[in-house]
Amino acid sequence: MKAYPHFSKRRTVELDGLWDFSFLGDDINLDLIDVSRIAYNSRMPVPSAFDAFPAYAGKRGTAAYRTRVDITAGKRGVVQFQSVGMYCQVYVDGKLARTHHPAYVPFTCDIPSDPCQKSREIVVIVDNRYDPMRAPLQEKFFDFYNYGGIMRGVTAFELPECHIEHCHVTPGDITRGAVSVRVTFGGKTPPRVNLSATIDGVHRVEFPGSPIVNGAVRLAVTIPNPTLWSPESPALHTMTLETEDDDMIVRFGLREVKAEKGRILLNGKPVKLLGVCRHEAHPQFGPALPDQQLVADIQILKDLGCNFVRGAHYPQDQRFLDLCDEAGILFFEEALGWGQNKSHFTTPRFVEAQLAQTRAMVTTSFNHPCVIMWGFLNEGESDVEEARTCYESLIRLIRELDPSRLVTYASFKRRTDLFLAQVDVVCYNTYPGWYNAEDDENPLAQILPKIRSDVAFLRSRQDLKDKPFILSEIGGAAIYGWHDAMNGFWTEEYQAELLESVCREVVGNDDISGVSIWQFFDCRTFKCGRALRRARAFNNKGILDEYRRPKQAYHSVKRIFTGQDRKGA
Ligand code: ADA
C-alpha cells in the first residue's frame, strides 16, 4: 500500500525489501565510523524495527543497513525515508550525506548526480541509544518503548531540475468546491512555471506562466461536482499538479472544522468525538506495522463505533492516515513528546528539534481530511513560565503553517496550566478511578465528580468557557483474561465498569466534546524498574490486548459508542 502523494512522471524505485544488515554493538563512536569497513553479516527487512526481532530484542546500540539503487547516470536522485529512529546517518557512495532525528517524520537525502555510475550505494547507520545531543526528543522515561530501525518505507526518485516538493490543498467555501492550493518547488526554481491541475482525473485547468514566489505558487481552484467529506460519507477528491517534467497526485477532502461556543463543528454541525488513543505498536513488529495490521486496526475501530483517534504520541504512518481518510475516522495528530519539563524547554537544541518535527508533521499530513487537530508535547510541564517560549512558538508555528485546523495539546496540569487559553480545544488527560486511589475502597465513585468538576472549572473561566473540552486520556488497566470475584484493579470487569461510566458521561454531557480512551490496545513500555506499575512491562490500559484480542471493556464501550446502550439492546 503506497501512501499519497503519488507520482507518475518521475522515475520511482521502491527500496522496501531485504537490506544487508549488521548490528555493530553498543559502544560505537558514531564520529569515528568507517563505513567502508563494515562487514554485513545478516539481512534485515525494510521497513522494520531491528530490535523487535529475536536476535536483537531489547538491544541498544548501532546498526548498519546497506542497499543499492540504480539512478540514471547524470540524473539527480533523492531517497525519501518515512521514519528512521532514533538517530541516523545516511551515506551515499561512502560519503556522509545527512543525519536525521527523530523517528516518525519523513526526510529526504540527496543522491548527487554522477555522470558515469548508475548503481549507487546507500548505507544507513541507525542508532537507538538515548543521547540528548543527537536525539533530544526521545527519552528513557517515555511510557512506550523507543525502538530503532528503518521503520517505515523508503523510496528513491529521479528528479528533474525543478521538482514539485509539496502540494497543499486547503478547503475554502466547501459547498462551492473552492480550495486554495499551494505548490512548493525544490531544486533550481525558475521565476515562472507552466502548471496544470487535474481534478478527479478528468477536469483539467491550466495555469500558464505562474509566478514562483518564495519557492511556491498559489492557485485558486474550484472542484467541479464537489462532494463533502464527513465521517458518515468520507468522499475524497484527487488533484494532479503537473509541470512539463514532473507531477504530484494528492488526495484531499472537502470539510470544514471549527471550534465555537464550546463545541467542535464539522461542516457546520456539532460533532461528538468518540474514540481511542492509538500507538503504532505490535509485540512482533514494534512500531513498523504491516498493511494487514493497519487495515485490521481500522476494521476494529469501525466495529467499536469510533469516529475518532488520537495518534499517541507521535505522527502516525501516512498509510494509516490514508485509511482514516477513507473510513471517515477523525484524527488528532500529535508530534513526538511525552512528559518533557522545564529542563527541556530551556534547552535550545530541544526546542529547535521540536519545532522542526512539528513543521515536518504538518507539512506531511496537510492533505488528510481526517486530521482535524494538531497537538504536541503530551503531558509537558505546562504550568511553569520556562515552558512559555516553547509552547507559544509551537502554537504560532502550527497556526502559520495551517490556519484551517484546530490546535491543542494534552494537558495533565489542568487548573494550573498556563497556556490553555491560547489553544482552540482544551484536552485533559485524567485518571479518576485509577491513579491516586490507594486507600479508596470505591474508586469508581471518583469518576463522575472529577469529570464534572473539571468541566465546571473550565466553564467558570472567562478565557476557557467557550473552548470545546475533550478527555484526551482516561482509563484503567486490565490484564487480558484476568477475572476475579472482587472485580478489583487489573480485572477486565473493573476496567469495563470504569470505562462504562466515563463513556456514558461523555455521550450524555454536552459540555464534553469527546473522549479518546487510554488506550486502544496494550503496548510494550519500560522494560526495567519503571515497569513496577506496568505488569508484563506493557501498558495494560488497552481495551484490547497487544494482539488485538478484545477485553470486556471493548464490548462495554462498543455498546455505548454505537448507541446500542441507549436503545437498551
Ligand atoms: C499518561 C500518558 C500515557 C500513559 C498514561 C498511563 O497520561 O500520556 O502515555 O503513560 O499516562 O498509562 O499512565
The oligomeric status of these chains comes to single chain
Largest sheet: 9 strands, parallel
> Which ligands does the model contain, each kind named once?
alpha-D-galactopyranuronic acid
> Termini separation (Å)?
38 Å
As laid out across the biggest beta sheet, the strand order is 27-26-25-24-23-31-30-29-28
Percent of sequence in beta strands: 25-35%
Helix proportion: 10-25%
Short summary of the structure?
This protein is an alpha+beta fold. Helix content is 18%, strand content 31%. Alpha-D-galactopyranuronic acid is lined by residues 143, 378-379, 429, 473, 518, 539, 541.
Report what the structure shows:
A hairpin with a 2-residue loop joins strand 20 and strand 21. The relative contact order is 0.10. Helix 1 packs parallel to helix 2 (318-327) and helix 7 packs parallel to helix 8 (552-561). The protein has 9 helices and 33 strands. The protein has 569 residues and is of the alpha+beta class. The mean pLDDT is 97. The protein has a 9-stranded parallel beta sheet, with helices on one face. Strands 3-2-4-10-7-8 form a 6-stranded antiparallel beta sheet, with no helix packed on it. The longest helix has 18 residues, at 348-365. Residues 143, 378-379, 429, 473, 518, 539, 541 line the site of alpha-D-galactopyranuronic acid.
